[in-house]
Amino acid sequence: MPKVTYTSAAGDVSVLDGNAGDSVMEIAVRNGLPGIVADCGGSLACSTCHVFVREEDLEVLEPMSDLEDEMLDGTTEERRYNSRLSCQLKLEGDVHVYVETPESQV
Amino acid sequence: MTEQTAVETEARTDRPVVDFDHNAEEHAKDPVASYRRLRSEGPVVWTESWGGYWVLSGYDAIFDAARDDEMFSSARSPHGGEGQAILIPKRPITEHFPIDLDPPASMPYRRIMNQLLTPSRVEEMRPMVEKYTALFIDDIIESGEADFATLTGIPSIITIDWLSLPVEDWRRYSFAHRKVLSAPLGSPEYIKVTEEELPALTEKVKEVIAERRRNPGDDPISFILGHEIGGRPITEEEVLNMVDLIISGGVGTVASLSGQALEWLSAHPDVRQRLIDNPDLMQNAVEEFLRFFSPTQALARTVGQDADFHGVKVRKGDRALLAWSSGNRDAAGGFDNPDEVDIERMPNRHMAFGVGSHRCAGSHLGRLMARTILTQVLERMPDYKVDHANVVRYPRQGVNTGFDRLPATFTPGKRLLGERL
């Protein structure tokens, strides 16, 4: 089962378990994690599920689509080299990824 | 046992019929109670009004429908008459892109909208938003009494000025776009606006687009004109389709949200005082006002294929109303005490901006305008009192809720700016 460690901008750490096929966004939302808003529900229409991915996890994740790339230009907190939209990060198997959530999503 | 369970969970073949019409006066009297009654009947019910349509009132049903563009299409189609498919009854107006299209056809337009309304671009608009809000308050602050419904002009003038349309026309846009959603269908006012005023304004927008094609500037219309759709330059008609959507999306919604929040805060002075003492709470409070008031109450889709959906059998071509406002009061959305305002509610996964590929592209701007209006009113008129007995709501509240009259009194203050509206 996939596992995600979320660290907030304030340094609060939450370690959450998901099911195979869940996205990093879905696991957060199901558990009421405040750092991920995901207004549009995962349709690449809002840029409010922005996360910073730990460098060594970047390559285990699905590559970024052109639309995700464009939407990352519209995040509230400016994108960095390790920015992703967590609705696009579907997890399979026993991966454990680490992400940081920005100070604000809206 | 398994077999029996399977039978029980199969979608019912008959339609659970309710007596309901979101455009009716009875609904407008108390939309919250009206949707509460519907939710008690089931998350998806059928009404025979307007040729028949499904009403999706449960949080999960609305969320799932809005996320599935193939099953619940926004595109124009022959089902349910001519015109814009996101409204019931349909409205025969200029096509709006991207909302009148489904992915993938909608995507090139959506991408342009996204770029136009990113948080950083919206941040650049902050001085203009603050200036116009101050000017509107200047206009009323010396008298000690005012109709707060006039503050609905703020989003209108901001939208028109931002688009670099002739700014002196803002009252016409404000009036027309409010009336088309709030005046009773078929009333003389409604007919005048839809048959004369909106087409006249559309002609003016067309002239501006043609002019920007010749002389591009640093403005949103020129920005849109600079894009390609599928490898060819965007046409002036397509630019009109986008600009008309921006105007109709930006004018009435913020007016609805800020008016209702101001009325509620007048009736709840304890919460108002907390916001005055802790301005940092405003951002979260606006999210809660979005959920609680749901300025855009409901929008429609057309069913794309026969299917079982949340316990009923929907058929291709059926019309369906997605009641965001009802989902926002459904405890299934994770809202404790959904009928109470909690300005510190968190998490708050409201659907006030819609859900899915057509979710409001202007949400950052809408939030900025609403926050600015509420903040400036609380700063400059902290003791305002709405005359609740003489408030007049829109006669029709199926699409947008809001006020035709919102009389208030307050301790007079001084103007801030030298210029006037």
Key terms:
heterodimer; A: 106 residues; alpha+beta; Ubiquitin-like (UB roll); 5-stranded mixed β-sheet; 5 strands; B: 421 residues; Cytochrome p450; 6-stranded mixed β-sheet; 3-stranded antiparallel β-sheet; 15 strands; 46% helix; globular
User: What value does the Rg of chain A take, in angstroms?
Assistant: 12 Å
Shape of chain B: globular
Q: What structural class do helix, strand and pairing data of chain A support?
A: alpha+beta
Count of helical regions of chain B: 16
Tell me the overall shape of chain A: globular
| Domain module count of chain A | 1
The strand order across the widest sheet of chain A is 2-1-5-3-4
- Derived from helix and strand composition plus strand pairing, the structural class of chain B reads alpha+beta
CATH topology of chain B: Cytochrome p450
Calculate Rg of chain B over CA atoms. Answer: 22 Å
What is the annotated CATH architecture of chain A? Roll
Largest interface (CB < 8 Å): A-B, 24 and 29 residues
Tell me the CATH superfamily of chain B: Cytochrome P450
Polypeptide structure, described:
- Chain A: One of its GO terms (biological process) is P450-containing electron transport chain.
- The complex is a heterodimer of chains A (106) and B (421).
- With 106 residues, chain A is of the alpha+beta class.
- Chain A has one domain: Roll (Ubiquitin-like (UB roll)), CATH 3.10.20.
- Chain A is 13% helix and 21% strand.
- Chain A has two helices and five strands; from the N terminus they run ββαβαββ.
- Chain A has helices at residues 24-30, 66-72; strands at residues 3-7, 13-17, 50-53, 83-85, 96-100.
- Chain A has a five-stranded mixed beta sheet.
- The model of chain A has no long low-confidence stretch (mean pLDDT 95).
- Chain B has helices at residues 2-9, 25-29, 31-41, 59-66, 107-116, 119-124, 126-141, 153-162, 170-182, 188-214, 220-225, 236-267, 269-277, 282-293, 324-327, 363-380; strands at residues 17-18, 44-47, 53-56, 72-73, 145-147, 228-229, 232-233, 299-303, 307-309, 312-314, 319-322, 385-386, 392-393, 403-405, 407-409.
- Helix content of chain B is 46%, strand content 10%.
- In chain B, helix 8 (153-162) packs across helix 9 (170-182), helix 10 (188-214) packs across helix 12 (236-267) and helix 12 packs parallel to helix 16.
- Chain B has one domain (2-409): Cytochrome p450, CATH 1.10.630.10.
- Chain B starts with a helix and ends in a 12-residue tail after the last strand.
- The chains are: A alpha+beta (106), B alpha+beta (421).
- The interface between A and B is medium-sized, with 24 and 29 residues.
